[in-house]
Design a protein that fits this description.
187 residues, mainly beta, Lipocalin, 8-stranded antiparallel beta barrel, 11 strands
Length: 187
């Protein structure tokens, strides 16, 4: 009888990034990141296929390198960090399938789950790539993922809007997210 062991990983926040970018004035992107977050991944067996993810972002740790903009994004117009101090994602990792030549791609995954921003929870799907696995400096086991996706901020109640003189949005509705995540295997 085959017994599968549960493997647990924790996000190493000091070697990870939670970033986003949004179109500004319809002409360029403004980028930012969240400096405080934590997460866990748990799966059975040696593969990440079927792994469960729990990821929490401290909304007050938002940083776009512009204090006035950060204050506006943390206000009730957007994240309302005083009332909603965390964004939460709970999801599952699945192998993405085959490459363009029909071969199995071991490093490509999709991450599907529920994202909660403010008091709104929506199903989202992100693309992920296992970027590597190896030993850390002190002999610990590590794994890395790059995760990319897009959400519409209005789907989560972030509906503040203002138009430019030409009729374009000052702040775009689509938010591109990018995570570089380094994991440390527990135990």
């Amino acid at each position: 009888m085959l017994v599968l062991t549960t493997t647990k990983w924790a996000v190493d926040a000091s070697h990870s990034t939670a970033a986003f970018k949004v179109r500004h004035l319809g002409v360029a992107n403004v980028t930012g990141n969240f400096k405080v977050f934590q997460g866990e991944i748990e799966h059975e067996g040696e593969d990440f296929d079927g792994a469960k993810i729990h990821f929490v972002v401290d909304t007050n740790s938002l940083d776009t390198n512009h204090a006035q903009r950060d204050g506006h994004l943390k206000s009730a117009d957007f994240l309302h960090t005083e009332q909603f101090p965390a964004m939460i994602f709970d999801g599952v990792v699945r192998k993405a399938g085959q490459d363009a030549h029909g071969g199995e791609v071991d490093s490509r995954y999709t991450v599907t789950g529920d994202l909660t921003i403010r008091d709104v929870t929506k199903a989202v799907t992100f693309d992920a790539e296992l970027t590597g696995m190896g030993k850390g400096r002190f002999g610990d086991n590590r794994a890395g993922f790059e995760v990319d996706g897009r959400i519409n901020r209005k789907d989560f109640g972030l509906t503040w809007s203002m138009l430019t003189e030409s009729g374009g949005l000052i702040v775009g509705e689509e938010v591109k997210v990018h995570f570089d995540v380094e994991l440390i295997r527990e135990g």
